[in-house]
Amino acid sequence: MPSPAASGTMGPRGTDLGSGRSVGKHRAQDSDEAEFDAATSAVTDVTGDYAVDVQHTRIGIRARHAMVTTVRGSFSDFEGAAHLDMANPPASRVALRIRTATVDTGVPDRDAHLRSADFLEVERYPEILFASTAVEQLDDELYRVTGDLTIKDVTRPVSVDFALTGSALDPWGNLRVGFEGALAIKRSDWGLTWNTVLDTGGVLVSDRIQVEFDVSAIRTRSDQG
After folding, report:
1. Phi and psi dihedrals of 39, rounded to 5?
2. CB atoms inside a 10 Å sphere around CB 193
3. 175 and 219 Cβ atoms separated by less than 8 Å
4. I want to staple 136 with a disulfide (CB 3.0 to 4.6 A). Which of 15, 144, 161, 198 is the partner?
5. Under DSSP, is residue 153 helix (H, G, I), strand (E, B) or coil?
6. What is the pTM of this model?
7. CATH assignment of 9-19+45-222, among 3.40.50.720, 2.60.40.2340, 2.40.128.110, 3.30.450.20
8. What is the DSSP string of 79-142?
9. For 43, phi and psi rounded to 5 degrees?
10. Domain residue ranges in the chain
């Protein structure tokens, strides 16, 4: 099970905007999932510069294994920065760096395979990079971020729809904002082509995977004009 690859667009949680198909159509409906307290919006104008809080952010991956189940993983070491401009969303920007060697699916042998030349080749390509090229506001709390995704020195454009999930002042006086988004991509578009054909048809690892973002970011500088 690999890491990011192939151009695509995803809604914030579930619908593949490129194909119109539901991702994980056999999963329980959202209403059956855990009910969390409603998100807060403590500050209406969250314009400013932000740093991703790694301890409270998840960058996850999902792929089909042996055509029958979903394997999940995540990266534990990354850094990100953003500038948010609520009055002029196209002036916003995002940058992200992910350390490929920190991929973790909970199975050491599988993680070692993902780090090998069959997949991420982490010694030669230690980082996955994303740099935004455009930001578009779709509605009050939904933004489409388009940018360049680089894996193993291959750069391709992708678009991710991010939902603004709230803002709050934490106990240490930091202004935090939350975003959620997901991206469906084909890993082969970035040269991650390893696979094994199954005797019963299909392949061991899906080409199409999903990258998931649950982001908490802390404002480092206010920019009110």
Report:
1. -65, 150
2. 13
3. yes
4. 144
5. coil
6. 0.80
7. 2.40.128.110
8. EEEEEE-SSSGGG-EEEEEEEGGGEE-S-HHHHHHHHSTTTT-TTT--EEEEEEEEEEEEETTE
9. -130, 125
10. 9-19+45-222
